[in-house]
Each structure stands twice: as C-alpha cells, then as structure tokens.
Amino acid sequence: MNSRPLLLLRLTTAVTAEIGSTPNGKLSIFPVTGGSFEGERLQGKVLAGGGDWVTTKSDGTIELDLRVTLETDDGALIHMTLTGVRDDANNYFRTLPRFETAAAKYAFLNRLLAVGIGEIRSDGPVHAIEEIL
Amino acid sequence: MQPDGGDNKIGGQIGNVAPGEALKTRLLTTLRVIVTAPQNIGAVPHGTRRTAPLSGGDFDGPRLRGTVVPGSSADWLLLRVDGVLEMDLRVTLRTDDGALISMKSFGLRHGPSDVIAAIGRGETVDPATYYFRTLPRFETADPRYAFLNRLVAVASGDRRPEGPIYTIYEVL
C-alpha cells in the first residue's frame, strides 16, 4: 500500500483525568493544551481544548480517541479526530486520523484516509501521519 | 526525524519506528463480498444514505480465510454533498477453522464523474482510476486470532458488479 507523508503532529497534554475502571476498561482523559503540525501541504498549531480519551482494555492494549482542532498558519480551522491502538507489549502504536474542514484550500483532507505512527516522547505524543494513496 | 526516547507519560517505552519513516504493510487477506439490492434511505441532513446488505462472500489470505456470514453484514453508505461516498462496512467473518470475527471498516470512495457513473451502471472499472480505500478494524474472542484485536489495517477496494473486493493489509 502506497502512502506519502501528510504531517508530523506534536501534542502537549495537561494532567490526566483518571476516570478509572469502567465497563469498557480503564479510562484516562488527556486534555490537549496545544501543539504544532508541519508538512509540505499544511502546517500550523494545535488549539487548546481538545483531548484524548484513552481506554486500557482487558488484553492490555490501549484504545485512543482523540479530538483536536488544528489551525493552519494561514488561518484555516481543521477538525481532526484520531482513533487507534497502542500495544506496548509489541511496540505497536498506530492510529487512524480523519479530517474535516470547510476551507477550500484544504478540502483535499476531507477526501483522504490516513494512518499515523505514534510515539510518546518526553515532551508529549508525536504522530507521523501518512496519507493513504 | 529520530526518536529521542525520554520518559513516557502513559506507559513503557514504545515506538520502534521513527516518525517520518514510510508506512510498512503486509497482506492480511482478500475479502470478496456479495452485495444485494440496496435499501435507499434517501436524502438525509448529511447527504444521501443507502444501506447495502451483504448476502455472503469469502476471504482468503496467508493468515485469514473463510466466509462472510450473511444476515449481520452490510455496508452503510452515505453520499456526501461534496460527492465523496462514505462507507461504513460491518461484516461478520467465519474462518475456515470456526472462529467468528467482527470486522468494521470506514472507507471513502470518489473519482472522476464518468468513472463513478460507470460503476453506478454496474460496469467493471480499473480500480486505479478512482480512490477506494478503507480502514478495517477487527474484534474476536478467539485466542487464535487475538492478533487481529491489536492491529490497524488499510484496504484497497475494487468495486465489481457483484460487490467490492477488498485487499486488506496489516499496518506494521
């Protein structure tokens, strides 16, 4: 399957809200306080106010459910959601981002599927997002 | 971009792939589904909705082969106002060794209007002439297939008159 780099997304998160054990697993909520993204076709910053709803399941894997708003350096707003799986036992952290925008310049984002490679760094999560061609 | 390691806020060290490295995939299975007459829901606030129940199908690949269970399998389709078809496929798979697997995949299909019109007329079209990609996820309780619970997949679709063929790749 062919892909090409779309953007590198860096997030900063605040103190986690630990909801605890629910019928679906252990739920933690990471507020997103900001961040940045860069790529050949779009770059800008992550607005504060998003978050990642992270559920640790009974098999030890972690499901992500992230929602953020991206603001490009030329002022367009992009609604981004991201689901995915983190399996630390197998060093596997892959995500499925989706984008919605009303900005004509970035309408191509409404029409593509993407896959992200995630990594937790000391200064926050980083997602390298590839467009599926 | 190289990983810089560092402490981990949520768990142990992860990431054996550097961000920016090209996406690697491996063939998981090829799924053929048989689509029956669609139920045309019609104009809804988000676009035009129709549901296409599946009467069956099969899948074959190095690690996954079997048949599609009819009755609980369909594709929920939404033609958006921008001309993009959103697909929400939910299929129950039964492997040749008796495991049941629930598969859900979100997908997008769009292309030049003449190509999409030809597909609408039931013609076989070169899949390279339009965009038809989906993102399957799997759920199973069968320990032999538990690896499916832990992976993300991408699929390339080929719309044939009897139904789509999906070539499904595990994202490594």
How would you sum up this structure, described in words?
The complex is a heterodimer of chains A (133) and B (172). Chain A is mostly beta strands. Chain A has strands spanning 3-13, 17-22, 25-38, 44-46, 50-56, 62-72, 77-87, 92-101, 114-121, 124-132. In chain A, strands 1, 2, 3, 4, 5, 6, 7, 8, 9 and 10 form a ten-stranded antiparallel sheet that branches. In chain A, strand 6 and strand 7 (77-87) form a beta hairpin. By secondary structure, chain B is mainly beta. In chain B, 5% of the residues lie in helices and 55% in strands. Chain B contains one helix and nine strands. Chain B has one helix at residues 113-120, and strands at 25-35, 39-44, 47-60, 66-80, 85-95, 100-110, 131-140, 153-160, 163-171. Chain B has an eight-stranded antiparallel beta barrel. The model of chain B is unreliable at 1-17 (pLDDT under 50). Classes of the chains: A mainly beta (133), B mainly beta (172). The interface between A and B is large, with 44 and 41 residues.
